[in-house]
Amino acid sequence: MKTYVLTLSQYFLSKHSRAGQPTDFAHLFENGQHLKPAGLEVCRHKIHTIRSNYLLWKKRIDEVTNGEAILSVRQWTERPYFSPQTKLADLTAENGVGIQMLRFHPGRDGNILWKYFDVNGAYPNIEDLAKHDGLSFEDWREWFKGYDLSEPLAIIHFTKFRY
Questions:
Q1: What span, in angstroms and rounded, lies between the C-alpha atoms of 143 and 146?
Q2: For FRET with 51, which of 80, 101, 108, 157 sits at 20 to 30 Å CA-CA?
Q3: Which domain covers residue 97, as residue numbers?
Q4: Looking at the domain assignment, is residue 151 inside a domain?
Q5: How many structural domains does the chain have?
Q6: What residues contact 22, with CB distance under 8 A and at least 6 apart?
Q7: Residue 67 included in any domain
Q8: CA separation, residue 161 to residues 15, 34, 54, 143 (Å)
Protein backbone atom coordinates (compact mmCIF):
# COMPACT_ATOMS: atom_id res chain seq x y z
CA MET A 1 0.00 0.00 0.00
CA LYS A 2 1.23 3.50 -0.80
CA THR A 3 2.19 5.87 1.98
CA TYR A 4 2.03 9.64 1.58
CA VAL A 5 4.07 11.53 4.15
CA LEU A 6 2.83 14.86 5.46
CA THR A 7 5.21 16.61 7.86
CA LEU A 8 4.37 19.20 10.47
CA SER A 9 6.91 21.72 11.75
CA GLN A 10 7.94 21.49 15.37
CA TYR A 11 9.05 25.12 15.31
CA PHE A 12 7.89 28.27 13.55
CA LEU A 13 9.81 28.73 10.32
CA SER A 14 12.68 31.17 9.88
CA LYS A 15 10.64 33.86 8.06
CA HIS A 16 7.96 33.98 10.78
CA SER A 17 8.21 36.57 13.58
CA ARG A 18 8.07 33.66 16.05
CA ALA A 19 10.90 31.78 14.29
CA GLY A 20 12.38 29.03 16.43
CA GLN A 21 9.51 28.96 18.93
CA PRO A 22 7.57 25.68 19.29
CA THR A 23 4.38 25.34 17.23
CA ASP A 24 2.91 22.64 19.52
CA PHE A 25 1.52 21.03 16.35
CA ALA A 26 2.16 17.45 17.57
CA HIS A 27 0.23 18.08 20.79
CA LEU A 28 -2.54 19.97 18.96
CA PHE A 29 -2.76 17.19 16.35
CA GLU A 30 -3.16 14.63 19.15
CA ASN A 31 -5.88 16.78 20.75
CA GLY A 32 -7.70 16.92 17.42
CA GLN A 33 -7.68 13.14 17.03
CA HIS A 34 -9.81 12.72 20.15
CA LEU A 35 -12.27 15.59 19.77
CA LYS A 36 -15.98 15.21 19.34
CA PRO A 37 -17.66 18.03 17.36
CA ALA A 38 -18.69 19.81 20.58
CA GLY A 39 -15.03 19.88 21.66
CA LEU A 40 -13.99 22.10 18.77
CA GLU A 41 -14.78 25.15 20.86
CA VAL A 42 -13.23 23.85 24.08
CA CYS A 43 -9.76 22.57 23.30
CA ARG A 44 -6.86 23.88 21.20
CA HIS A 45 -6.36 21.50 18.32
CA LYS A 46 -5.03 20.91 14.81
CA ILE A 47 -7.62 19.02 12.78
CA HIS A 48 -6.23 19.95 9.38
CA THR A 49 -3.27 21.40 7.60
CA ILE A 50 -3.21 23.70 4.60
CA ARG A 51 -0.82 23.13 1.72
CA SER A 52 -0.13 24.52 -1.71
CA ASN A 53 -0.46 22.35 -4.83
CA TYR A 54 -4.12 21.44 -4.47
CA LEU A 55 -4.18 19.09 -7.49
CA LEU A 56 -1.29 16.98 -6.20
CA TRP A 57 -2.83 16.66 -2.73
CA LYS A 58 -6.29 15.97 -4.21
CA LYS A 59 -4.90 12.98 -6.11
CA ARG A 60 -3.13 11.67 -3.00
CA ILE A 61 -6.03 12.16 -0.61
CA ASP A 62 -8.43 10.54 -3.10
CA GLU A 63 -6.18 7.46 -2.99
CA VAL A 64 -6.35 7.50 0.82
CA THR A 65 -10.15 7.82 0.84
CA ASN A 66 -10.39 4.98 -1.72
CA GLY A 67 -8.32 2.69 0.54
CA GLU A 68 -5.33 2.63 -1.82
CA ALA A 69 -2.94 4.60 0.42
CA ILE A 70 -2.35 5.87 3.94
CA LEU A 71 -1.45 9.35 5.12
CA SER A 72 1.53 9.24 7.47
CA VAL A 73 1.53 12.40 9.60
CA ARG A 74 4.99 13.14 10.92
CA GLN A 75 6.91 15.93 12.59
CA TRP A 76 10.40 17.18 11.95
CA THR A 77 12.52 16.70 15.08
CA GLU A 78 14.45 19.92 14.45
CA ARG A 79 15.06 21.89 11.26
CA PRO A 80 12.66 20.99 8.40
CA TYR A 81 14.23 18.88 5.63
CA PHE A 82 17.50 18.60 7.58
CA SER A 83 16.43 16.49 10.55
CA PRO A 84 14.79 13.13 11.16
CA GLN A 85 11.02 12.77 11.39
CA THR A 86 8.88 11.30 14.17
CA LYS A 87 5.67 9.55 13.16
CA LEU A 88 2.56 10.99 14.85
CA ALA A 89 -0.03 8.73 13.18
CA ASP A 90 -0.92 6.78 10.08
CA LEU A 91 -4.38 7.88 8.94
CA THR A 92 -6.91 6.33 6.57
CA ALA A 93 -10.40 7.08 5.34
CA GLU A 94 -11.71 5.55 8.59
CA ASN A 95 -10.08 8.40 10.51
CA GLY A 96 -11.91 10.87 8.31
CA VAL A 97 -9.03 11.95 6.06
CA GLY A 98 -10.34 14.26 3.37
CA ILE A 99 -9.59 17.34 1.34
CA GLN A 100 -11.29 20.64 0.58
CA MET A 101 -10.23 23.45 -1.74
CA LEU A 102 -9.42 26.84 -0.20
CA ARG A 103 -9.55 29.73 -2.66
CA PHE A 104 -8.78 33.38 -2.00
CA HIS A 105 -10.40 35.95 -4.28
CA PRO A 106 -9.20 39.34 -5.47
CA GLY A 107 -10.74 42.57 -4.24
CA ARG A 108 -11.87 45.33 -6.58
CA ASP A 109 -8.28 46.42 -7.15
CA GLY A 110 -7.28 42.90 -8.24
CA ASN A 111 -5.16 42.19 -5.15
CA ILE A 112 -5.85 39.03 -3.17
CA LEU A 113 -7.44 39.91 0.15
CA TRP A 114 -7.56 37.69 3.23
CA LYS A 115 -11.24 38.37 3.84
CA TYR A 116 -12.41 37.11 0.42
CA PHE A 117 -12.17 33.33 0.35
CA ASP A 118 -14.23 30.17 0.16
CA VAL A 119 -13.85 26.52 1.06
CA ASN A 120 -15.58 24.37 -1.56
CA GLY A 121 -18.14 27.15 -1.95
CA ALA A 122 -18.75 27.58 1.80
CA TYR A 123 -17.72 30.72 3.69
CA PRO A 124 -16.43 29.75 7.14
CA ASN A 125 -15.08 32.23 9.65
CA ILE A 126 -11.41 32.86 8.82
CA GLU A 127 -10.46 32.78 12.50
CA ASP A 128 -11.98 29.28 12.77
CA LEU A 129 -9.94 28.25 9.74
CA ALA A 130 -6.77 29.41 11.51
CA LYS A 131 -7.77 27.85 14.84
CA HIS A 132 -8.49 24.45 13.26
CA ASP A 133 -5.04 24.70 11.66
CA GLY A 134 -3.55 25.03 15.15
CA LEU A 135 -2.67 28.73 15.02
CA SER A 136 -3.95 32.13 16.07
CA PHE A 137 -5.23 34.19 13.15
CA GLU A 138 -2.18 36.48 13.35
CA ASP A 139 0.29 33.57 13.27
CA TRP A 140 -1.71 31.80 10.55
CA ARG A 141 -1.80 34.85 8.31
CA GLU A 142 1.94 35.39 8.75
CA TRP A 143 2.59 31.67 8.07
CA PHE A 144 0.89 31.98 4.66
CA LYS A 145 2.14 35.43 3.65
CA GLY A 146 4.65 33.97 1.18
CA TYR A 147 2.16 31.66 -0.50
CA ASP A 148 0.69 32.33 -3.93
CA LEU A 149 -2.90 32.92 -2.84
CA SER A 150 -4.07 33.23 -6.43
CA GLU A 151 -3.72 29.43 -6.66
CA PRO A 152 -6.09 27.10 -4.77
CA LEU A 153 -4.77 25.63 -1.52
CA ALA A 154 -5.53 22.18 -0.11
CA ILE A 155 -7.12 21.83 3.32
CA ILE A 156 -6.11 18.31 4.31
CA HIS A 157 -8.41 17.06 7.05
CA PHE A 158 -7.22 14.63 9.72
CA THR A 159 -10.76 14.02 11.06
CA LYS A 160 -14.32 13.86 9.71
CA PHE A 161 -14.81 17.59 10.29
CA ARG A 162 -15.57 19.62 7.15
CA TYR A 163 -16.49 23.23 6.48
A1: 8
A2: 108
A3: 2-157
A4: yes
A5: 1
A6: 10, 11, 12
A7: yes
A8: 30, 12, 19, 22
